């Protein structure tokens, strides 16, 4: 998921550009990590459960300043939820998550990267999956969270988002079919997209969204909820478990800094803009760990 800085309001634009500049440095350093070149693979004892993390930036990203593994543009942080889960449970982790990933990139190649599913084997024990958001236009939704144009996002993008959502179930079913072919015995956990905003967030308690219309705020929340519903229903159809930490509505980008599980500009938490914070990734890791 990518965020266009030109769509941000002036009071956040410079802060976000500064954050992204810091991100670029961190990612360039992460790309130089020769120990884990293509996957975030940790050396474990031979009896450790094999865990593969699949998906997009909601799984790959964490703190911008944390060490990164794999290709720099994947933004695969060492404090993302796969890494935190691995540390909690002593798992043998192959982390192939990558920002911007679509369902097609789980099943097929992306640029010079092999299909993410190549990391999965018949002996794989645990799989986590964060996918579907980019297929459903999550990048448009995050841009709309900071929209300042006269026309609201529901009018501009409602049709394309609804079309993308209608196509999402079949794409998710294809991903699960591919996983089941390769690892029929693996436990699969599909992770939610934690909401950027909640119904209680408004300009009085969150100046960052003061120029976003009430209509757009409601539309944004509804569409993220719809994405999560499709992800949840696809998981249930496939016999996977859907994971969402409790009380996410209390930990949006408008919550007190220390309580944010996602952030908007990311400047106060060190997170990537419009993505989970370290604390948010920790909450997700704990929620998965409770189901293992």
From TrEMBL:
InterPro entries: SEST-like, SGNH_hydro, SGNH_hydro_sf. The active site is at residues 57, 275. One of its GO terms (molecular function) is hydrolase activity, acting on ester bonds. GO terms for biological process: lipid metabolic process. SUPFAM superfamilies: SGNH hydrolase (SSF52266). It holds the Pfam family Lipase_GDSL_2. Keywords: Disulfide bond, Hydrolase, Signal. Disulfide bonds join 74-98, 144-153, 206-254. CDD domains: SEST_like (cd01823). Residues 1-26 form the signal peptide. The keyword rRNA processing does not apply. Residues 53-281 form the SGNH hydrolase-type esterase domain. It comes from the Bacteria. This is SGNH/GDSL hydrolase family protein.
């Amino acid at each position: 998921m990518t965020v266009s800085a030109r769509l941000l309001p002036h009071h956040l634009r410079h802060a976000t550009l500064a954050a992204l500049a810091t991100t670029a440095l961190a990612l360039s350093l992460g790309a130089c990590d020769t120990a884990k070149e293509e996957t975030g693979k940790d050396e474990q004892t031979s009896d450790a459960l094999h865990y593969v993390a699949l998906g997009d930036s909601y799984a790959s990203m964490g703190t911008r300043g944390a060490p990164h593994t794999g290709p720099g543009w994947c933004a695969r942080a060492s404090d993302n939820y796969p890494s935190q889960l691995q540390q909690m449970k002593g798992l043998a982790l192959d982390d192939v998550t990558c920002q911007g990933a679509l369902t097609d990139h789980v099943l097929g190649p992306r640029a010079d990267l092999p299909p993410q599913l190549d990391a999965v084997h018949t002996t794989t024990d645990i799989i986590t999956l964060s996918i579907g958001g980019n297929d459903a236009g999550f990048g448009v939704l995050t841009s709309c969270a900071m929209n300042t144009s006269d026309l609201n996002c529901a009018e501009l993008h409602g049709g394309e988002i609804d079309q993308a959502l209608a196509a999402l179930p079949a794409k998710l079913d294809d991903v699960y079919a591919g996983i089941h072919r390769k690892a029929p015995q693996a436990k699969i956990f599909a992770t939610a997209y934690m909401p950027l905003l909640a119904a209680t967030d408004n300009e009085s308690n969150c100046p960052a969204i003061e120029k976003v219309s009430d209509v757009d705020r409601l539309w944004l929340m509804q569409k993220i909820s719809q994405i999560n519903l499709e992800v949840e229903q696809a998981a249930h159809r496939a016999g996977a478990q859907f994971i969402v930490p409790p009380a996410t509505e209390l930990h949006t980008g408008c919550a007190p800094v220390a309580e944010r599980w996602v952030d908007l500009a990311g400047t106060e938490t060190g997170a990537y803009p419009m993505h989970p914070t370290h604390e948010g990734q920790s909450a997700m890791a704990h929620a998965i760990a409770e189901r293992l």
